[in-house]
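Sequence only, no structure available. Ideas?
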Amino acid sequence: MSGPPSGPTLPSSPPEAPPPPGWTVAFQVAALATERLDRFLADQLRLPRTQAARLIAAGTVTVNGVPGRAGRPLTRTDLVEVRLEVPAPPARDLVPYHMPLVIAFEDEHLLVLDKPAGLVVHPAPGHWEGTLVNALVAHGMRLAAGERDRPGIVHRLDRDTSGLMIVAKTDEAHRRLARAIALRRVERHYAALVWGHVDRPLDIDAPIARHPRDRKRMAVVATGRAARSRVEPVARFAAADLVRVKLGTGRTHQIRVHLAHVGHPVVGDPMYGGGGSRRVSGPARQSAEALERGTPRQALHAARLAFAHPATRSWLEFRADWPEDLRPALAAAAADQALLARSSPLDYLGFFK
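Reply:
I predicted one. Tokens follow.
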């Protein structure tokens, strides 16, 4: 079998599912510039990026007739051709991982849970076991097919970000929830402690892509994917502020990258922290150092989630107050040890208003 009989194709949108093995598929780049070849291929074919990279490494992908490299940037009119000759290797077996889960809501269609910090969401190179997906399997939950190695996952949180997540149990729920997120009909609000003072609401519209020199990091890059966040001040402290971040899109590390980009990195962020307490001078330096000592990880928490139920269309809203492991950081930032005893410090500080 073969794909297009002649000439390049310019699909108006990615196919609904990966083409079957044996097809040759061609794309002509319409944008002035794109990201790397492997990411472009993953987006166009709706494949995990690791699988797109395997196709490129196998020599089945050409750019303008020349074998492509995963990191090659693409430009307008480039012709990308893909030979899908060999079926992808089967997904790995999901090894159950027994751990307690904090579930805020569950029915036959979906569940909403409060993910703890330190837990990877789904299996990936370097973390094939001990993930949230493995924990869901251990609890005997039926999950939507979703993406390869990511059953049920509708959206993700970074490993060291805690808070509310949606998991789909059925394919229909997964499809509808993913579409709702794409259309910005799911409200995702994060609480963050950030260095410095945010004097007014900020609307950040800055594209994000892989850092050009450090593949483990993301960065604001002109040719990156569109990314939008709104940052609103909630409480001002001596060296840091508590802010509310509303997601307009959901790029990798988006909140951390955007906050660092506008000069207010997340307290405790080892990757985008921008020097931490050393960035603070004057009388606030001492409180900044105390805050840093009391922050065990990035002070970022998915605190509010609201959306229409994919089956009943009823409006659901969930709140998860500031987590226990970050209570000392909040108390240090506010110079108020009484916050340690409050059961709902975010509510007390007006975050949910």
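Residues 102-182 form a domain with the Pseudouridine synthase fold (CATH 3.30.2350.10).
Hope that gets you unstuck.
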